Amino acid sequence: MIVRIFFIISISIGYSSAQYKVSIPGGVQIKRSHFNRSQIENDLQSKYSNLLTATRNAASSFTSLYVSTQSLTAYGLGSYYAGYITIGTPPQQFLIVFDTGSSNLWVPYQKGAEKKHKKYNTFNCNISTTCKSTKRRISIKYGKGMAKGPIMKDIVCLDGLGVDACTNKNQRFACVTKKTVKGAFDGILGMAWNSMSVGKIKQPIDQIFRNKSNCPEEVFAFWLNPNTEKTTGGGEMSICGIDSTKYTGEITWIPLAKTDYWRIKINSVYFGTQLIGNQTFGIVDTGTSLIAGPPSTIDVILTLVQAKAKKDGTYKVNCTQKSTFPTLTFYINNNTFDLTPENYIQQFNKKEKQVCLLGIMSSGPLNMWILGDVFIRPYYTVFDKANKRVGFAQSVTIT
Ligand SMILES: *[C@@H]1O[C@H](CO)[C@@H](O)[C@H](O)[C@H]1NC(C)=O
Ligand SMILES: *[C@@H]1O[C@H](CO)[C@@H](O)[C@H](O)[C@H]1NC(C)=O
Ligand SMILES: *[C@@H]1O[C@H](CO)[C@@H](O)[C@H](O)[C@H]1NC(C)=O
Ligand SMILES: *[C@@H]1O[C@H](CO)[C@@H](O)[C@H](O)[C@H]1NC(C)=O
Ligand SMILES: *[C@@H]1O[C@H](CO)[C@@H](O)[C@H](O)[C@H]1NC(C)=O
Ligand SMILES: *[C@@H]1O[C@H](CO)[C@@H](O)[C@H](O)[C@H]1NC(C)=O
């Protein structure tokens, strides 16, 4: 079964920039943008195909298909958050999606003397004094097209506010000729564990963590403004520290169940007072815009809110009834995490009419939870590499 996922958080198109200053090392401002719905479509199964086919592919350490599917999915869900990184000496800048649901860094590259692409930035190894092209190549399938390119080595920096958060010059990354995705952003920086990396290319975050003088704490954290109406509201990713101005109360820590993705155990799920899901895994994924869950559980929700499937794979609900819908509650490590209808339904104006889209859908044969941006917006999320745990705290809303 192929599940098509689209998720438009708001109908406005274009970038919105976060304007909030960060006082911690290596804070990266991220902004929320939208995909062109008719242009982008995808499914979670392909992003997580290695979970479905783990046994079959255990022997092969290099499967190009995985890269393709990850990269498509990360921006296949309607809205995404992106920020800047630089590569090389002098630095070349790229707008990147920070994706905790994959483990590879890739950017488009400039192969020959051809003109730079108009719609996105390309990496040119020749003009970086620290760049080395390796002999290895990576081949990536994009939907109907194919993109191939070399694996390069260079310095990768998160565009921090005055503080360097950089790898050394031996950081490897994939350089690809970008074909299908237009405009939106340049590449993806995977932040899951190295065991999930295609071609065993270590992701840059561990390298950044290695510099103890710059990076005392092996953590990164995401704040995605719960107020999605505000076009100037974006988000923030911090690295080597957390930003205590972006959450209130205590951080609740959840141990990882496995260090492949940011994978935790979810004990049970309630919709109002009704138990709708038993123990299963959940993956915390900043690169997915919504929440996906086991089909049997999602079916109960769809029925209870009388969701109507739209052609593009999203579900609509009646806006007038929104306030009567129950709270969705996750029991995790003996803590409860509530999502109100305000959190899991996106309401916006379309041609003078209110439209309400459900931020929840089925994860199909994955049969587990993918806790995407719909979950992360109300819960400031800390990814603690050193202690193999994630932390959730009540997010601050900026209006
Ligand atoms: C979205 O993509 C389609 C197909 O590529 C194109 O026809 C349309 O003009 C695009 N819309 C916007 C708003 O960019
Ligand atoms: C980089 O240098 C190589 C070898 O001189 C050349 O073939 C290639 O076209 C150059 N690439 C760019 C983007 O200038
Ligand atoms: C750590 O980063 C600082 C500042 O960028 C740099 O001077 C230093 O050489 C780095 N240390 C290591 C071990 O890479
Ligand atoms: C959860 O497990 C209990 C005990 O095995 C079972 O009775 C119940 O039907 C299950 N509920 C769901 C929603 O799967
Ligand atoms: C939405 O719900 C309200 C209140 O229950 C009802 O009056 C209205 O007809 C519903 N709208 C649609 C399109 O079903
Ligand atoms: C969960 O909390 C309940 C009530 O506070 C307690 O009785 C139970 O032992 C706790 N379970 C675990 C696994 O900590």
TrEMBL record:
Pfam families: Asp (PF00026)
GO molecular function: aspartic-type endopeptidase activity
Keywords: Aspartyl protease, Disulfide bond, Glycoprotein, Hydrolase, Protease, Signal
GO biological process, one term: proteolysis
Active-site residues, Swiss-Prot/TrEMBL: 99, 285
Superkingdom of this protein's organism: Eukaryota
InterPro entries, alphabetized: Aspartic_peptidase_A1 (IPR001461), Aspartic_peptidase_AS (IPR001969), PEPTIDASE_A1 (IPR033121), Peptidase_aspartic_dom_sf (IPR021109)
GO CC terms of this entry: lysosome
Positions of disulphide bridges: 319-356
Signal peptide location: 1-18
Annotated ranges, domain Peptidase A1: 81-393
Entry's family note: Belongs to the peptidase A1 family.
Protein name: Peptidase A1 domain-containing protein
Species this chain originates from: Acrobeloides nanus
